[in-house]
Amino acid sequence: MVVQWGILGCAGIARKFCASVSRIDNAVIAAVASRTAGKADDFIAENCPGSKAYASYEELLADASIEAVYIPVPTSVKTELVLKVAAAKKHVLVEKPLASAADVKLMIDACKAAGVQFMDNTMFLHNARQDSIKSVLSDGGMFGDLRHVDSTFSIDCANDEAWAADNIRMKRSLEPLGCLGDLGWYNVRLTLWAFQYSLPTSVSCTYVEHTEEMVPTHLMAQMRFGNKTGSFMCSFKSAFRNSAEFVGSKAVLSLEDFVVTGKLDAASYKVTQTTFGAKDETFPLVTLKDEELKTGVQHAKLVETFSGLVASGKVDETWPEQTYQTQLVLDAMVKSAEQGGMWISLQ
């Protein structure tokens, strides 16, 4: 079965979605809708030739042939659109970030009532590397017990004055969570994944830099999981990085590209152990494992998985639950930042 997809909006990130669909066999982009005259036609010509153009979102949702909808619009209008898509009984793949845990619950409840799949577009979870990393984290002999997860996701776009002035990520009316929502979403999800989706007992977050509207542009955050911990930095004003470390009681697993891989269809990681040198004059680093995997394209794997769920007629409730947990943590971090980095309990 080939799932018929529709796209609401022609945001730049939707080009990646089109590229993903072009790489798989169980999905096709059947229609694109835009509220701007002619924009859908131009987008289709460049990204998905042969798709049908609609001049409104409502027209696309009224098309009975469309089975699943991808939503790449600004956060400020996502909730309304997800509810409309669910009401039309079409499956929902929505871009992150989302507005609040309350909004996420509205979306999930609406999709559940309609019997349709809900999933956010966190692509790295669908990379085969995750399974390989999980096997290391559960290897008590080599890695020990997971103690800490640290990650960084930063881009330097806000150092460009034109980008900072015009990009929606800097505008509270469109993307109120700034770098926390756009980038920190991935840091939080990685940490939750590592701790098997146990919510942290408490979190702390500090907006180191922000706009006049209090949209964060550079921040640091911490999470407590009982006696285990997580931390991250995300920024629109620092050099491009998307690295992560999992610190065990015996070894450390590290990767340089946890969100978007450096190679299209391959991904790598290292497991290392630091030792004491002679007379403690050096701390030699020993590589226990240096792995590169042929993974396929993670963005395409996500769409393939989602389309497979649509074709099966079954709804996988784990995906919406992960979205909700991620947003709960983000909400607590916003509350913490508003109170000067105070630790906020999630229990």
List keywords for this structure.
Dihydrodipicolinate Reductase, domain 2, 9-stranded mixed beta sheet, 15 strands, 2 domains, 28% strand, Rossmann fold, 6-stranded parallel beta sheet, alpha/beta, 347 residues
- Across the major sheet, the strand order is 14-13-12-11-7-10-9-8-15
CATH class of the largest domain: Alpha Beta
CATH topology of the largest domain: Dihydrodipicolinate Reductase, domain 2
Q: Helical percent range?
A: 25-40%
State the helix count.
10
- On the 0 to 100 scale, the average pLDDT is 97
The CATH superfamily label of the largest domain reads Dihydrodipicolinate Reductase, domain 2
Indicate the proportion of strand residues: 25-35%
- Regions with little confidence, pLDDT below 50 for 5+ residues: none
Could you tell me the radius of gyration in angstroms?
21 Å
End-to-end distance, in Å? Answer: 44 Å
Shape: globular
Following the backbone from N to C, one meets helices and strands in this order, namely EHEHEHEHEHEHEHHEEEEEEEHHE
Main beta-sheet annotation: 9 strands, mixed
Backbone structural class: alpha/beta
Q: How many independent structural domains?
A: 2
Q: Architecture of the largest domain, according to CATH?
A: 2-Layer Sandwich
How many strands in all? 15
Family: Belongs to the Gfo/Idh/MocA family.
Domain GFO/IDH/MocA-like oxidoreductase: 139-253
Domain Gfo/Idh/MocA-like oxidoreductase N-terminal: 4-119
InterPro entries: Gfo/Idh/MocA-like_OxRdtase_N, GFO_IDH_MocA-like_dom, NAD(P)-bd_dom_sf
Structure explained in plain terms:
This protein folds into 2 domains: 3-124 and 301-315, Rossmann fold (3-Layer(aba) Sandwich); 127-298 and 327-345, Dihydrodipicolinate Reductase, domain 2 (2-Layer Sandwich), CATH 3.30.360. Helix 1 crosses helix 9 (298-312). Helix 5 (101-114) links the parallel strand 5 and strand 6 (118-120). The longest helix is centred in the last third of the chain and has 21 residues, at 318-338. With 347 residues, it is of the alpha/beta class. The strands form 2 sheets. Strands 14-13-12-11-7-10-9-8-15 form a 9-stranded mixed beta sheet. The protein is 34% helix and 28% strand. The chain is globular and about 75 Å long.
